[in-house]
Amino acid sequence: RQTFGLNTDEDVGDYNHVIGAGLNFVESFNAVDIAIFAGAEWANLEMDSGNAFKDYQSYQGGLNIGFAGFTLGGSVSYNDAGIDDAGVGADADIWFYDVGATYGSGPWTIGLTYSHASYDVDSSIVDIESDRDLVELGVSYALAPGVTLVGALQWMDEDNDLEGDIGGDLPVEIDFGTEGFAGAIGTKLTF
Hints:
By secondary structure, this protein is an all-beta fold. Helix content is 0%, strand content 73%. The protein has no helices and 9 strands. A 9-stranded antiparallel β-sheet has the order 1-2-3-4-5-6-7-8-9, with no helix packed on it. The radius of gyration is 21 Å and the shape is globular. The protein starts with 14 loop residues before the first strand and ends with a strand.
């Protein structure tokens, strides 16, 4: 994994020996469909320079339950962005989770999903906190085998906070964010 786009060995902030593992369970019990997954990924830092980087780790998990055309599900993931709490006194936590439901009957499927992402970096110099919430309503209609019309409407809200003390004499506090709607329609082709 090249962090800074360099193609050499022993680069600061680059990773090697990436190992990932996952488990997946899918089964039906008396017309109830269950799907469970869990996974993890680890990577070694190419060069331990004693700075703000460390070995990378991430973890994921999720569950879907379906019955009579309804499907309920959710997932969660975490990673530490490979940022070390030693070098410059920094630590990072990145979380993502979502929950959703769909209902399908005949050629129609409708679904509603909520997701949240949070990115927190705490250091001796600056603290960064970013949160994003997203709600999506989607619908699809199967026109023919391999041809599906799809449409979605989304609402998103993002808040970012940056607080710190640059050079010990310059306190900084910046708060910014955005909120908005988006929509999409299209055709999905599968072969």
